[in-house]
Amino acid sequence: KISQNFLTAAAFNEGLHFFIEDTYYENHNSRVNGFLYLGLDNFGSEINKLKENGFLRRDFKEYAISYAINEKGEDVKSGDFENFNYAVEAFVGYLSERRADFLNFVRSRGYNAKKLSEDQIDYWTYFSHNCGKNCMRDRIREKGIQVPKNPGKIRTNDPVDNALGVLATKDLIDRAGLFEKRISEDIALHK
Questions:
Q1: In which band, very low, low, confident or very high, does the pLDDT at 41 lie, cut at 50, 70 and 90?
Q2: Interhelix angle for 84-108 vs 43-52, to 10°?
């Protein structure tokens, strides 16, 4: 299951804050570019598998295929979503599929998936989302499944740093209890 804190951290790392700045203020029901704002680079190529394998409902149709060029210079088939709710539904399905793929892969390599920490699972789920399943598998074959130590400064073109950044953001949300607390009206209104 994808936690709310991990989902939020991953979405903002992918560019959700740009959607808020660019569009959401003016139109809460505007379309969402899945490539730009959620990193759903290959959504259009994977939609049928996501539905067939139960990661998205079979009748999910609130999107249009879109095309883009990713940061590697590759042509990708993404998706634009009718509104934010459908974009989040797609993002959760996509991350859930990446998580299941990671867990199946490590089981096939002899690891006991039940002994993995939540941070390990979230790290590798996001790593796979960020650079692809084959990239994730190659990295695990080469380095193992331990989460690397934070190197300090985050480099945004590095999947290791991107995944560590998501974990750091998730940790901040967890420690602050952002989704468990209600801010008093006085504080919210700066009284």
A1: very high
A2: 70
